[in-house]
Structures are given as structure tokens and as C-alpha cells.
Specification:
62% helix; mainly alpha
Length: 77
């Protein structure tokens, strides 16, 4: 059995409400898009012309990048 030592508390992140709102919006949009693209519902995506499929995937990539950037933003401490 290992002894548990108590050190400094783990650092926490604090986000501004604006950042949290934007994260919530973008993550909800990504979730909805993934429902359309993944599994049985993805059939409609597969019949789109190449240009539309590329644009949809570009949108997914942009949303994911924005979420990643928002997670990297720190709010007031």
C-alpha cells in the first residue's frame, strides 16, 4: 500500500462566462453535426456532392479548432 501525501492543490482553470457560453454553443453544434455524420444517420452525408462534403468537414474542423482555442483561453483568476 502506498502512502498518500498531500501537496499543493491541483491548478484549476477559470473561464469567463463569455468563453463558457461560446464553448457551450460550439460543442452543441459539433454534437449535432456529428449526429448527422456518424452512424446510420450519415447516409445523407455520403450522397452529397464532393464539394458539399468537403465544406461540411471544413465546418467541423473549424468548430473543433475554435473549441480547442476557447479551452486554451483562461478567464479571470
Amino acid at each position: 500500500m502506498h502512502a498518500v501525501t498531500q501537496g499543493a492543490p491541483a491548478p484549476t482553470r477559470s473561464f469567463s462566462l463569455d468563453v463558457l457560453d461560446r464553448l457551450e454553443q460550439r460543442s452543441a453544434q459539433l454534437e449535432s453535426l456529428s449526429c448527422l455524420l456518424y452512424g446510420g444517420a450519415g447516409g445523407g452525408f455520403n450522397v452529397l456532392p464532393d464539394a458539399h462534403r468537403e465544406n461540411v468537414l471544413w465546418l467541423v474542423a473549424d468548430l473543433a479548432s475554435e473549441v480547442r482555442a476557447l479551452v486554451g483561453e483562461r478567464g479571470p483568476r
